[in-house]
Design brief:
- The protein has helices at about 5-15, 30-35, 50-60, 70-80, 80-90, 100-105, 115-120, 135-140, 165-190, 200-205; strands at about 20, 40-45, 65-70, 95.
- It is of the alpha/beta class and about 210 residues long.
- The protein folds into two domains: about 5-145, Thiamin diphosphate (ThDP)-binding fold, Pyr/PP domains (Rossmann fold, 3-Layer(aba) Sandwich), CATH 3.40.50.970; about 155-214.
- Strands 2-1-3-4 form a four-stranded parallel sheet, sandwiched between helices.
- The radius of gyration is 23 Å and the shape is elongated.
Amino acid sequence: MNGAESLVRTLVKGGVEVCFANPGTSEMHFVGALDRVEGMRCVLGLFEGVCSGAADGYYRMTDKPASTLLHLGPGLANAAANLHNAKKAGSGIVNIVGEHALYHIKYDTPLTADIEGIARPFSHWVKTSPTAKTVATDGGRGDPGRARGARPDRNPDPAGRHGMDRSRWRRRDARDAAAAEARQRGSDRGGQGAEERPDIDAVHRRPRLACAGA
């Protein structure tokens, strides 16, 4: 069993059952491990933003943490916007990011980047594993089974776990119901007085979805 397999087994034991992946050459050992270890489903995403958005949505729908597999620092940067949203919403995601071989980093190739520096603004825990022998232990220290971000008290989420302000939906439904009732009254009389005509344009200008955590 290599380091990649040991990390996948750690994730599975921690309750992580799916990995949304956009791998590169640095992550091929992990890709192979996903095929060999039972209990982990791999879903390929053609862009890192798709993977991070899918992982966020998976947690919001199932209340289970997901994982992503991303290629080096630029791949993590491509996923950053959705990971920012996930942190604000308290979604549990474990991001696995490949790195160059230690002997290759000194050449400062185009994709070399400060991965930890990129990850910190939207992460509650960051760790770089220097060897294959420690990667499983390092992953376990992050506690993948409880990979979720507590929302700060200064910015409570009024919408609940799924990130939608349900009170706005209720107000919208009430407005639509009132407009429909007014239209029905006018139809029953064969016409509609100007004083009872609902402001349909105003109703349609109302937001249909409100995202929380801003």
